[in-house]
Amino acid sequence: MVETVQPLEVARVYQHCAVDRLDFETTDDLEPLDLLSAHQRAADSLRFGTGIRSPGYNLFVLGEGGAGKHQMVSRFLQGRAEYARTPSDWVYVYNFDEPARPRCLELPAGVGRRFREDMNGLIEDLRTAIPALFESEEYQGRLQELEQTARQEQQAGIEEVRKAAERQDIVLLTTPSGFSFAPSKDGEIMEPETFNQLPEEERRRIEQVVEKLQEQLQQALQKMPRLMKSFRQQVTALNEEMLVAAIDGPLGELTRAHEQHSGIRGHLEAVRKHIVEHVNVFQEEQPEIPPEVIFRRCQVNLLVDNSAAEGAPVIYQDLPTHQHLVGRIEHHVRDGALLTDFSLIRPGALHRANGGYLLLDARSVLMQPGAWDTLKRNLRAGEIRTESLEQAYGLISTVSLEPEPVSLDVKIVLMGDRMLYYLLSAHDPDFADLFKVQVDLEDSLQRSEDNLLLFARMIATLAKEAGTRPLDPQGVATVIEQASRQAQDQERLDASTRQLGDLLREAEYWAATDNASIISRCHLERAVREQTYRAERYREQSLEQIRRGTVMIATTGTAVARINGLSVLQLGHFAFGRPTRISATARPGRGQVVDIEREAKMGGPIHSKAVMILTRFLASHYAPDSELSLSASLAFEQSYGGIEGDSASVAEVCALISAIGRVPLRQDLAVTGSINQHGEVQAVGGVNEKIEGFFRVCRAAGPLSGQGVLLPASNVEHLMLPSWIRQAVEDGSFQVYPVATVDEALALLTGREVGKADHDGRFPEDSVHAQVAGRLKRFRRVVRAGRRDASPESDDDQP
């Protein structure tokens, strides 16, 4: 004999918040609360992950959407970073030895900016000092001396040949094409006719003399290039001497100002050498390398400037592309060609967060091409390599810069949902090596008397951050009750700060509409109603179809092999319950229960599993020692979408039992719950939405007259029904029954004794199980006899 299950009292379908425990006037009286304090496990993990400095101990923050991960983690990291060491500055300078590999220098915070300003000042000074140097009287005087000396040395050789020629009555002539010799007589150049009239011996002598003079002249002329080279060397030495005198002063000051930084000293020495080596650039009218190029090479590219920072940086990169992570090398167009240099290297998020913390959304990183591999590669190497994605994957072969890598010391904090974390753990072998710290936020918080004031402080903090009016105790109690409803649990509170924050902001709107100075229960309840109103268009259409009979749902009377099951539809963030008629058929067969949804490929694997379980329950319950001679079918009527889940398995087994035994079932009751192989009813999800859905259908069909819902007894603590259903429960027009077994559900649905088998496996006469067992026995005889015209309704077949 199964005891009749009593409906729940109204106190058990809703957990009110005790307002008298909220000892404050408004939330302005409460101290703000660090929202992370409600997530003790996550807070301890964050402290550990940010404290340990070993490689690979980066963090992954797990939590559902709306849990406020970013806000809580950012606030925690800001608190940690405030007392941390300020990281170094990073600068890029020209590499005079390998121009394609700019050098990076690590400098103490603030030194990078000062170094850049010092170099800019030096360049401005040199732009005016160097031209003035070469226009000075001292330089011009010394240059003229060198030129005069050079000319004198060149003329001395020619003059010596001229004098030697004059002693031999030979004149050295200067012509446009060079030098030539001519005989003379009495100081006059001899005419060719006169020369030809000379005796042959005399002519031969003159020719021999001219030949010797030409050799002597040739030797003098050959000395001239060496003299010019010497002259140029002397001019270069003079230029270098003057230039060194001009730049050694300011360079020496800079060197002394940065003498404790070896990288700066080395760069200043390279700058000095480079300027001196290109001294001629500053004198030529059209030099091969313009002076501005020389000056640009002396500049400093301040990549990371921490001069104004206090503590370690906390950076959030909302678009973590490859370039946004590791930086980029920009180009400019000149004469149709793309050119670049060290001054066009730009930092990425890893540069800015170096020495601190970098927050990234895991899903965003994975969605950007190459970003995930780039992040892992730089973490493994411990350095930041600024290169284009095409270079990283070898997709281009053009000449570009290869900047020296920047050493990396950063804590990466990835944020994402649990499924993403578990997928990465399972499928990415590098993930466990690089993200060793799991920071798991709570989805819901314990609702206890001790936590009421703590949660009230949390609400006060959210209200202040949202800039709303303060809440009175009634308003806080309403938020707590709504948090329990969102958590689907009387003993838990939803930890989603986004949903609670939205609720407070919307309640602020309605409070402002009423010109109220505080937010109270009425404003919050209206905010909830308005949220529902904006999202319930499809639910109203579904209810209208049921009310007009387009979708057949009975809420009165009884029927055989038909029952009202309950399902939940999720549309975006809005979920609502909708009853569905489940029907069954039964005839003699070989123990087969056909799941029509599965056969039509509309049922999911969990639903198929549930049908297999209930089939085994029927076999073990009614035919423990023999074959179950049954051919049955189950279907969700007027269902045109997919079916998934096991929450209808109790309703399905009751419909099958009704079909086999031809036992009528109450249509004013709807059923939800999962069944195991022993006939026990297991908890399911969405019970509040399911009850509300059936209640709306019953109310739309006419005045309520004792309709109700059967749900698993283990789901009672999850009930947070709205006030209009609680009122109906209180006056008895609508009831909620907790059932623990299928027998309890059958007793309520049939209104008859269900029956319990004795030691011989026999059920009491006139019980539901006896009627079902008797009909299955007739099925078995029909199957065994193989008679197609057998009538299982024969009086001889009565048990």
Q: How is this structure best summarized?
A:
This protein is of the alpha/beta class and 799 residues long. It has 27 helices and 30 strands. It has a seven-stranded mixed sheet, sandwiched between helices. A five-stranded parallel sheet has the order 8-13-16-1-17.
Show the helix and strand layout:
Elements: H1 40-51, E1 59-62, H2 69-82, E2 89-93, E3 103-107, H3 111-134, H4 137-167, E4 170-175, E5 178-185, E6 188-189, H5 192-196, H6 200-257, H7 262-277, H8 291-297, E7 300-304, E8 314-317, H9 322-326, E9 328-329, E10 332-334, E11 337-339, E12 345-346, H10 349-353, E13 357-361, H11 362-367, H12 371-381, E14 383-384, H13 389-392, E15 406-407, E16 411-416, H14 418-427, H15 431-434, E17 437-440, E18 444-446, H16 449-466, H17 473-487, E19 492-494, H18 497-513, H19 521-535, H20 537-547, E20 558-560, E21 562-571, E22 574-587, E23 592-595, H21 596-599, H22 605-622, E24 631-636, H23 649-661, E25 664-666, E26 669-671, E27 674-675, E28 681-682, H24 687-701, E29 707-712, H25 723-731, E30 734-739, H26 742-750, H27 768-785
Parallel strand pairs: 1-16, 1-17, 8-13, 13-16, 21-26, 23-24, 26-29, 29-30
Antiparallel strand pairs: 2-3, 2-7, 4-5, 5-6, 9-12, 10-11, 14-15, 18-19, 20-25, 21-22, 22-24, 27-28
Helix pairs in contact: 3-6, 4-6, 6-7, 16-17, 16-18, 17-19, 18-19, 22-23, 23-27
